[in-house]
Amino acid sequence: MPPEETTPSPPRSSPDEPGRPGQSPPRATTDQPHRPDPSPAPVAREPRWHAPAEAATAPVGAQSQASAHPQASAGSASIPNPTAPSTDHAGSPTHAPTSSATAGIEVVDVRRAFGSVQAVRSMTFTAAPGSVTALIGPNGAGKTTLLLMLASLLAPDAGSIRIGGVDPIADPRVARRVLGWMPDVLGTWRTLSPRVVLRMMGRLHGMPTHVARARADELVAVVGLEQLADRPSRVLSRGQQQRLGLARALVHRPRVLLLDEPAAGLDPASRVQLRGLLRDLATDGCTVLVSSHDLGELDEVADASVFVEAGEAVSGDRLASARGSSTTWRIRSLDPAALSLALGRIGVAIDRIRVEGPSTTVVIDADAHAADLLARLVAAGVPIVHFAPTVGDIERTFLGLSGQTGAPGLPAPGRVQQRGGVR
Ligand SMILES: Nc1ncnc2c1ncn2[C@@H]1O[C@H](COP(=O)(O)OP(=O)(O)OP(=O)(O)O)[C@@H](O)[C@H]1O
Predict the structure, then answer these.
(1) What is the atom index within ligand 1 of the atom nearest the CA of 293?
(2) Which atom, in ligand 1's list, is nearest to the CA of 184?
(3) Which of 9, 90, 228, 253 is the most buried (most CB within 10 A)?
(4) How far is the CA of 30 from the centre of ligand 1 (A)?
């Protein structure tokens, strides 16, 4: 059983260890009882929370619904592949058998209602192994409901789900060996320390005591909780609880990782570290599906994205239209006057240019035109120090879907008047 279901009633906080607010068990999002957590699993070492900077800043791949682009990240060569055939602590196979063709997430026409509320209307998408897929949508779109169904904690009314080739509804015990689940709010034993919580999770996953102990020690370091590892969990801050929640999801080295708002409450440095960890896990072959409202974060880490609106995946046509044909680029130069002059000489239409403090923004129709403009500015001797879109692909698409542009005050890209040298 997951800790939130088996957690004994929390004792009162002692005076020297005051409990933190908001540490009650997770919100009830289902109308069904949660099922037991996944069982055992194997393996060796782990990508670290303190990931290499280059992995943390890996560029975003092409963002497209229901497509994924496995992306190699630097600094991960020594990390073992969690999808490799594995054995249990006695040397016997423990993972559910999966083929590479079915190792990711497959969702076909999944539906779920709560009474008269159709939370998930019709969801179809895939998430590929070795990639981070973003799950994006406004409040109430159905993301958490979908994740609960993927995590085998909520039965769909209709449709088909495969997690690593396993049907989580028909075969939840096997599915739970494959998947790791990090809910948006951590439910845990408030009086137990993170180290003990992780040991218990290891034992619940079927690990022998000494293996569970070693795994807990390892994970405490992976998520950077060494200093608090032996304090009661109730003293953890929101961000520290997130770290423990992630460690808990990783205990059995899952091949599919489902994360609901994992960066909530994390400080900026921790967010960078989380991105590095997720990239490393994906590089190792893990299928990572992450729901978040932090579109900038997702733009940094995701290889693919699934946009959800009113319980449905947004169609490719709508996504293409939402992305629009133009992008606003931000340019900074050591010599702003030279930049303005050069933009005029190159023939950029005045209505596409906007000066915003030390930056200049320019609406440009295509990446190739942006590259051409940059080359011309450099050739003109303008000392450029920054040249990038004002928002990432995911954010631009989300804003397009919600009818907003990425740059307040600028016309919507699709409505920019077509004149001037750079489109
Ligand atoms: N247990 C429940 N009983 C009744 N309605 C529910 C239940 N869980 C979710 N809903 C409803 O289903 C819809 C989808 O909720 P869900 O939590 O999946 O959205 P979400 O996309 O995760 O939202 P958010 O981004 O705000 O977390 C909402 O209208 C919500 O009110």
Answers:
(1) 25
(2) 27
(3) 253
(4) 9
Residue with tokens 């907003």: 404
What atom in ligand 1 is closest to the CA of residue 142? 18
- Enumerate residues lining ligand 1, CB below 6 A: 29-31, 114, 117, 119, 137, 139-145
Closest Cα to atom 28, ligand 1: which residue? 140
Q: How far is the CA of 155 from the centre of ligand 1 (A)?
A: 15
Along the 423 residues of the chain, how does pLDDT read in single tens digits? 333 333 333 333 333 333 343 333 333 333 333 333 333 333 334 555 543 332 222 222 333 333 333 333 322 222 222 233 333 333 333 334 444 445 799 999 999 999 999 999 999 999 999 999 999 998 999 999 999 999 999 999 999 999 999 999 999 999 999 999 999 877 777 889 999 999 999 999 999 999 999 999 999 999 989 999 999 988 888 888 889 999 999 999 999 999 999 988 888 888 888 888 899 999 999 999 999 888 888 888 899 989 998 898 887 777 777 776 678 889 999 999 999 999 999 999 888 999 988 889 998 888 888 999 999 999 999 999 999 888 777 877 887 777 764 443 333 333 323 333 344
CA of 143 to the centre of ligand 1 (A): 8
